[in-house]
Amino acid sequence: MRSNNAGCRFGVCQRKTDFMETVKLTINGQEVTAPKGELLIEACEMNGVYLPRFCHYRGLTPQASCRMCVVRVDNPKIPKLQTACTMPVTDGMAVTTDSQEIEDVRAAMIEFLLSNHPVDCPVCDRAGECELQDQTYGFGEDRTRSQYDDKDNYLERQISPFIYNDPQRCVTCKRCTRVCEEWMDENAITVLNRGASTVISAFSGWVECSDCGNCVDVCPTGTLLHVPYKYVARPWDLKQTPTVCNFCSDGCSVLAGTRGENLIRNVARDGRGRTAGGINHDFLCSLGRYTVDFVHSKDRLDRPMIRRGEHLIPTTWDDALQHVAQRLGELKAQHGGDSVGVISAARLLNEDQFTLRKFADDVLQTKHAEYYHDDDEIDLASFFRYGAPTIATQAHLQNADTILLIGSDPNEENPLTAFSIRWAVRQKAARLITVNAMPSRLERQANISLRVREGSEGAFVQALLDDAKLNDAAAALGVKAEDLQAVRKAVAESGRVVVVFGDELRGAAVEALALLESALAAPSAEAADAAKKAYIDALQRQVKSSNSTQKPSINENPYTYIVEHPTLEVGAEPVRTETKFSFLPLVRYSNTMGAGLVGMHSDDKGGMSAHAMINAAGGGIKALFIAGEDVVSKANGEASRVSTQLAKLDFLVVQDMFLTETAKLADVVFPVTSYAEAQGTQVNNGMQIQFVRRAIPPVGQARPDWMVVNQLAKLMGVDFGYQGQLKTIFKQIADAVPGCAGLSHNLLVNEGATQISLPQPEQSKINRADVLERLAGQVAKINRNVAVDAAALTAKAGTRLKQRYPQITQHSEMLTPELPQGVEAAAPAPLVFPA
Amino acid sequence: MSILSNIINAAKEVVEVARTTAQGMSVTLSHIPQKKDTVSYPDEPVQIYRRFRGEHFLDVNEDGKERCVSCFLCAAACPADAIYIEGAEDPRPYEQRASMDHRYAKVYQIDYGRCILCGFCVDACPTDAINHGHNFEWAVYTPGELVKDKDYLLGNKWREPDVTPTEKQRPLAAKQKHDKFNITLK
Amino acid sequence: MLSQANEKKLDEIISHYPVKRSAILPALYLAQEEHGYVTDEDVKYLAQRLDMRVNEVEEVVTFYTMYSRKPVGKYKLQVCRTLSCMLMGAEQIAEHLEHKLKCGMNETTPDGKFTLMEVECLGYCDLAPCLQVNFDYHEKVTTESVDKLIESLK
């Protein structure tokens, strides 16, 4: 651990530095380079010198409270030991990190921290991945001088449905409170009291928050623990599989901890500093982290089911597959291929979607095959009509000069995007402009926030494109023209703009986004830099002199922290786009992008959409093959109509994890794998393709979706040539899909998230006049008499993400967490140290 | 000549055989009155050294509370991967619960088909919950029976020779259904 | 939550600062003056008035020992327990007070007159040991002078 040549111990320092300005410095006599403005502790780690730390955490503001990372700075000569976590590197700096003096200080600090730490490692869930444990072994002494019995000052307690708190184990590093404030902007968990009686708690004793659990993940000791994981397993028993979450379209990497055949927990980073190495830094949201219990729900289907009269009865795979192959063959022969429709869930992996598409094309010979999407989802077909505008990844978002958020509430629907936006605003002084009908917590970070009329977001695009129509657009949006003018100016003078947009943009407005690049040309690099500097200066002035009667438009003063940090990203990814505008469409499902990419849509073949197929049931459609989608539960308020439609079918096959409302109507139900058991690739909203690893073997007799379809195809006389291998499927995808050429599973396993590059829209081909005319028509339709009513919309917010996965969320107990019975809210801690 | 020498040789052989037989028998006969080293197991109890590493027992403290806090260290130390544990929480106060700590082992299994009786688990245990007893009788009909559960291992303590329960431990000892081990300690 | 007079004062205080939240300390004194201690409602109300979050207000209240989050006696006796005072005999003073008032640390006497506390450094190291009674400092206290002080307060 103390060796200088050991390389990065925690494996998090793979950041690419060659596109940054670097400085030369000397660490323990060895000359090394580091990015300019980087903190010394990170620079050391990048060069293979690990400095112990508790309070420092990459991506959080410096705290310097644990004093473990002290170093001797020889040049420029500083008389006292310095904390490496607060010191930026400078050219020619010389530091010593390893001397008797420093070792003594570290040992003394450890002894001090342990003086009030109950050494109850055997019952502490953190043992084995505890940083205090590791560093005591690495840097501490084997004995202590402070032996006293009254270490038990505060009792253990549960402070939220998901957080368990043992205050005496705390080393007051304040990582949790900083995470809560900086990553989540919630301030739900906080530090109370002072000195030796400092305790992590909250105002009412209960931590009321969105339950993201990040505070628990970053805790270096056993002070904060996950309630669902309490006493369940030990970290050394868990097999950690890096895989990808399948809840929202952000596609965070998670480390799935499994014990035997059980999925125990999901974390972004285990206590040993191992990360999933994905696009999400060490961030995870509540759904991705805690909603893992559905995988082992007792309701999971474990055998195929076949309809016998009124009842679905369990059967064997052979029988079920034979029956389906025979019936589909009959119907195809009787009514033609187009009488059968295929619907897939947008969360299924690329391999599954591709196989379903092939099944529809080669076996059923139907043109009706589409992934299920609602009419009020983002219109990707319009977005990609003239080619692919630059898609922004999280790295681009984190390094943008200006972020335009149009519609959606990333806090609820795409928590990682919300995290990246907050990070960009706080660390990089990005300018956030929100255009939203619904109130969003991100407005706290916004420089300009426009609360607009519901359904009028398209008018905002019009205002950006056409200066002449600005007043009209302002009237349609229900905002002041000056504000729109200010937004337009800000966007025009910015160097890099990321447009994050949600479902609210429709039709021509989405198409018109491709015109932004030519309408608002990029300023020169100098002009963009000058504008950015002017913006930062203005912010700082505003903070200094803002009138008390006026609410600051920014989150008080996060700009004291602006550091010239390199990107947060792990992996070698460019943080700048070629074009001025890049877009992050907040699509709904984890693989909506991928489903479209591998061709699981009917547009180009003239087939019906999923909704049209259901509506045509009993008419043109005689049989449906529904993979992984609960179309009945998803049909808001129309469940009974959809059920009646499905009942009209001659034959309905459903493959799903649970016996959903849709599956209950089916003639044959196949049990399939969940995301923890499936392997393959998926594409997130940033067009990054990621490899999903299998963490546990399939539950019961479940099989992957592609395998079921492949077997059916074989029974129906078509061999897809997969040879039973997933890699072969991806090879076929790579050959068939333009952006995926050259990709392979092996490559994706090694590279992590890889962005698929698609050809840019050809500006000459775009019929500008037509697009603008249709957009104007859309804007003209907006009812300008409706008041901008935020309160009515507030009620709608907050539940959208959970509604998207009915079959998963209905079988997870984590979404309706219950506090322990009979326990009163923990009272705020006593004011002073009890005598 | 040759006949005579043959007779002499035969006589010598007879004498030699008689002598060696007597010599050998004298050893045998001298042992007959001595104390026996063998035991007519299983009719008689076996004598075993105190430090013999036999089948484990799970210990309880003086109040009769299970010492095991399900820390998994024994399972981690086990080179044969013979120990399986599932932890759980018992939030009741000390007097009501069966274990020493809130944290206890819901499932505790040792597979004696795998166990090599190395004693690493006993060394690793921070609460002295797991100990080697002296039992070695594992003859079973199926391998599955070699997996011993927590109740069995807890009961083993009371089957050991020379164990006197404290006042509070007595009900536990009384509950033990199996007989004492057929062992005496040296 | 505050009386009208105090509400006016609060408006006045807020107008002194460029950023609203800077008024938190005087605002808390105002609330404490009115209710005797800072109540849960005060914390929520001030958070709303000063554009802060309740947790941020709670942090401030619990950090400073001049604020109380629980009802306290008429006189709040705060004995400094930090290094200089401790070396100069603060521990004996605290013990003496416990005996004299027959109440433990962080407790209030039954007659509601005194609350006894041990606090971090009061900044009077040169005149240690120091005892703070409400907002008055009594420096270089001895057991005798403490006795006299208690008598005079009774």
What is the secondary structure topology, with strand pairs?
The complex is a heterotrimer of chains A (835), B (186) and C (154).
Chain A: E1 22-27, E2 30-35, H1 40-46, E3 70-75, E4 82-83, E5 93-96, H2 100-114, H3 131-139, E6 157-158, E7 163-165, H4 175-183, E8 190-192, E9 199-201, H5 214-218, E10 224-226, E11 239-244, E12 253-259, E13 262-267, H6 286-290, E14 305-308, E15 311-314, H7 317-335, E16 340-344, H8 350-364, E17 369-371, H9 380-383, H10 394-398, E18 402-406, H11 410-413, H12 415-428, E19 431-436, E20 448-451, H13 457-465, H14 470-477, H15 481-493, E21 497-501, H16 507-512, H17 516-519, H18 525-545, E22 581-585, H19 592-597, H20 610-615, E23 623-627, H21 631-634, H22 639-647, E24 651-656, E25 668-671, E26 680-683, E27 688-692, H23 705-715, H24 726-736, H25 745-751, E28 754-755, H26 768-780, H27 790-794, H28 800-803, H29 806-809
Chain B: H1 2-31, E1 46-48, E2 56-58, H2 73-77, E3 83-89, E4 103-111, H3 120-124, E5 130-132, E6 147-148, H4 150-159, H5 170-175, E7 183-185
Parallel strand pairs in B: 1-7
Antiparallel strand pairs in B: 2-5, 3-4, 4-6
Chain C: H1 4-15, H2 24-35, H3 40-49, H4 54-63, E1 75-80, H5 83-87, H6 90-101, E2 107-108, E3 114-119, E4 131-133, E5 136-138, H7 143-153
Parallel strand pairs in C: 1-3
Antiparallel strand pairs in C: 1-4, 2-3, 4-5
CATH class identity of the largest domain in chain B: Alpha Beta
Oligomer: heterotrimer
What structural class should be given to the helix and strand makeup of chain C? alpha+beta
Main β-sheet description of chain C: 5 strands, mixed
Number of strands of chain C: 5
Order of helices and strands of chain B: HEEHEEHEEHHE
Domain count of chain C = 2
CATH topology of the largest domain in chain C: Glutaredoxin
Distance between the termini of chain C: 32 Å
Low-confidence stretches of chain C: none
Instruction: State the major sheet of chain B.
Output: 3 strands, antiparallel
